[in-house]
Amino acid sequence: MEQQDPTKKEGRLTLVLSLATLIAAFGSSFQYGYNVAAVNSPAELMKAFYNETYFERNNNYINEFSLTLLWSVSVSMFPFGGFIGSLMVGPLVNKLGRKGTLLFNNIFSIVPAILMGCSEVARSFEMIILSRLLVGICAGLSSNVVPMYLGELAPKNLRGALGVVPQVFITVGILVAQIFGLRNLLANKEGWPILLGLTGIPAALQLLFLPFFPESPRYLLIQKKDEEAARNALKRLRGWDNVDWEMEEIQQEDEAEKAAGFISVLKLFSMRSLRWQVISIIILMGGQQLSGVNAIYYYADQIYLSAGVNDHDVQYVTVGTGAVNVLMTICAAFVVELLGRRFLLLLGFSVCFTACCVLTAALALQDTISWMPYVSIACVICYVVGHALGPSPIPALLITEIFLQSSRPSAFMVGGSVHWLSNFTVGLIFPFIQVGLGAYSFIIFAVICLLTTIYIFLVVPETKAKTFMEINQIFTKMNKVSEVHPEKEELKDFPLSTLGQ
Fold first, then answer.
1. Distance, CA of 213 to CA of 53 (rounded, Å)
2. Phi-psi category of 124—alpha, beta or left, where left has phi over 0 and alpha has psi -120 to 50?
3. Which of 459, 337, 331, 455 lies closest to 402 in space, CA to CA?
4. What is the rounded distance in angstroms from the CA atom of residue 290 to the CA atom of residue 101?
5. What is the CA radius of gyration of the chain?
6. Taking a C-beta distance cutoff of 8 angstroms, is the pair 210, 99 a contact?
7. What letters, b where the CB count within 10 A reaches 16 and e where it falls short, cover 448-460?
8. How far apart are CA 238 and CA 157, in angstroms?
9. Rounded to whole angstroms, how far apart are CA atoms 367 and 459?
10. Which residues lie below 8 Å from residue 140, measured CB to CB, with a gap of 6+?
11. What is the pLDDT of residues 217-257, one digit of tens each?
12. What is the pTM (predicted TM-score) of this model?
């Protein structure tokens, strides 16, 4: 046993691992963030383009309701595409691998980038609507596959930090889109098609460089049964030759679920050994989107205006908020291995809950008390800080950690579907809630933040510095299934021929 200790040395951030992380996150996650924010600044210019194009075809302008509907469709095509992308995750990552799926996914970025860039020249707003659907599919796939890929590449002591990197790049993508979306840069009559088309550049770079980096060793060994390729991938990623202990750990995981094969979404919901994992990802992903993060951004401009910020300067304040988001997500990447996932989730949701409560009071009193608008601005910034620390980056990381190889793709399909459907629902319903409830609409989000915090406190365990098998044992006890291998419960559902393999 003493001879094996050197083989269990702490994993380090090698050049290969860090470059694979950067290329995967920049080529995929960055685009998700970029496309979330890219249409915000040029919205009025794009509506004018829709109207002009319609006039050129029909000799009359679109009525106000139809124009609003067309614009709503253009915006909501993105989360709808995200939902479709999430449903494609399982089949693609099992067929093409994690890296292969990311490379294939670039089709859904490069094609729409060209279409959006040419939409004004072609005088077609339909090209924009179709492109928003396609970049949505790209985001739906990347938001699930990048955390899965990086979680499987990383050694256990770096899994948390690397698992937060995709969220860092999402926030950087939002910030870059906000900067390029300043009126004196690309949010003008000539520049907006370029602003939309720039999304193709990260995809092209990923297509160029990612093929030179390893596929997930877990995928190669457990699904492809290619021990030699998995060993070589691990050697390149770790920077040393003795990877026996890690190969053994992956083989233990393989043994634990030998007969499971690919666990479908339906099977995921029916298995007792995965009950609390599935409930946890649904609540965490739902809580992440339904906690009001999109509504805060939607409301932010009005809050800044009411605090006396000049109409022209609001865009710069928005960029400042985006910068805070990036900084706090980078902080999360550095402290996630120190403070743990559970602590950051509890802290983040608690801050969001408090910010929503105080913001409700501040908005209700802003016409009565002169300094209340400044309290509103502070609440927006506090909310952004809280969300960036826990609710934004941690749920996708936890999906990688609390599911084993055979159930992970389906778990990401479930988590991704909840994420995008919640996103779509908030985008569709919030304007109506805002009209009906006004300042009090944030009470709904405060309640969701509180309920999610209570659930995390009572149920979600800490997964910091544990192997996938160790985490699995924690849930084995929670699910009250067999201590030896919880997946043995699955065996009774499989034909004897499968068991003999």
1. 45
2. beta
3. 459
4. 28
5. 23
6. yes
7. bbbbbbebbeeeb
8. 12
9. 42
10. 81, 82, 83, 84, 85, 86, 87, 88, 89, 416, 420
11. 999 998 888 999 999 999 999 988 888 888 988 888 777 76
12. 0.88
Using alpha carbons, select from 202, 70, 79 the residue that is nearest to residue 135.
79
Sign (positive/negative) of CA torsion 330, 419, 208, 204? negative
Residues 297 and 358 sit within 8 Å (Cβ to Cβ):
no
Gap between the Cα atoms of 318 and 320, Å rounded? 5
Predicted local confidence at residue 153, as pLDDT: 93
pLDDT of residue 104: 97
Supply the angle between the helices 64-105 and 200-209 in degrees, to the nearest 10: 10
Residues with Cβ < 8 Å from 381, sequence gap 6 or more? Answer: 321, 324
Q: Measuring CA to CA, how many Å separate 91 from each of 152, 264, 493? A: 18, 10, 21
Inter-axis angle of helices 408-437 and 442-458, nearest 10: 150
Q: What are phi and psi of 10, to 5 degrees?
A: -60, 135
- Rounded to a whole number, what is the largest CA-CA distance in the chain? 84
Helix (H, G, I), strand (E, B) or coil at 240: coil
Q: Which two tokens stand for residue 84?
A: 């479709």
Q: What is the pLDDT of residue 413?
A: 94
For the chain, list residues with pLDDT below 50.
Answer: 1-4, 6-7, 484-501
Confirm if 387 and 352 have CB atoms less than 8 A apart.
Answer: yes
Q: What b/e sequence results for 380-416 when a residue is b if at least 16 CB atoms lie within 10 Å of its CB, and e otherwise?
A: bbbbbbbbbbbbbbbbbbbbbbbbbbbbbbbbbbbbb
What the block records as the tokens of 372 is 């209340």
